[in-house]
Amino acid sequence: MRSQNLLYLSLAIVFLFYILPLLFAFFKLDLGKIFVEMDAITRAIFLSVTTATFSTLISLFIGVPSAYILSRRDFPGKSVVETFLDVPVVIPPVALGTLFLVLFSETQVFSGILFTPYAIIVAQLAVVTAIILRLMKTVFDQIDVSYDYVARSLGYTPTEVFLKVDLPMAKNGIISSAILAWTRAAGEFGATIVLAGASKNVETLPISIYLKLSVADISGALISVFILVGIGIAAISAIKRLG
User: What is the C-alpha R_g of the chain?
Assistant: First the structure.
């Protein structure tokens, strides 16, 4: 009984660790300021939603087939490729953004992207594609490969097996990964500030928080914070409904 109480105590500590800052921040929130800064907030939401949507769609388009190859095929150097593709998940986004900054600044073709809204999409893409790869590889790993063998015995090509067998079976995993990736993209900051900077024309919700904090406007920053918290709660709820 005592050991069970200790388990509940550890859960209570973790819960309070995260909920207390949220509660204190909520009481610090100036709701009247929302109406004063409605235009700026709306622009930040629009830019965050738009760029996150584009980056998520692109990451799904390239990430899902890539994850399928990593899950279903063996090829020379596969472990090296997998290790390298996992690096963006574990290094800080600001470091990842710095690598792309060097690439773009040294490449005349791409240098015009820097410090524009397009750079936001690149920053988000750099972060979320690696997440999509990892999540979707796990999804495909959990699909019984015997379905592939049966489909091949019926005359399906490898591409048809992917499109008509494995992809439909991975539908819930794809949706969950897309929701998680979109939410992560909307909250991306580290790589974004390196590639896009921190100005009004590239003011996403995380950049808005940074700009507000840079002038000690805590209540203004909290508006964007709670919008992102709301997006996160909605995303997690949607994923849980998918099972």
Answer: 21
Q: Which of 131, 135, 140, 110 is nearest to 122 (CA)?
A: 110
3 state DSSP class of 70? helix
pLDDT tens-digit profile, the chain (243 residues): 666 778 888 999 999 999 999 999 988 888 788 887 888 899 999 999 999 999 999 999 999 999 999 999 999 999 999 999 999 999 999 999 999 999 998 887 788 889 999 999 999 999 999 999 999 999 999 999 999 999 999 989 999 999 999 999 999 999 999 999 999 999 999 999 999 999 888 999 999 999 999 998 898 899 999 999 999 999 889 888 876
Joined together, the tokens standing for residue 175 give: 């949706």
Residue 234 has φ and ψ, to the nearest 5°, of -65, -40
Taken as a whole, the chain contains a residue count of 243
Nearest to 176 by CA among 144, 206, 131: 131
Query: In the chain, what is the greatest distance between 2 CA atoms, to the nearest angstrom?
Result: 67
pTM: 0.90
**Residue 19, Cα to own-chain centre: how many angstroms?**
22
| Angle, CA of 226, 229 and 233, to the nearest 5° | 140
Class of domain 23-242: mainly alpha
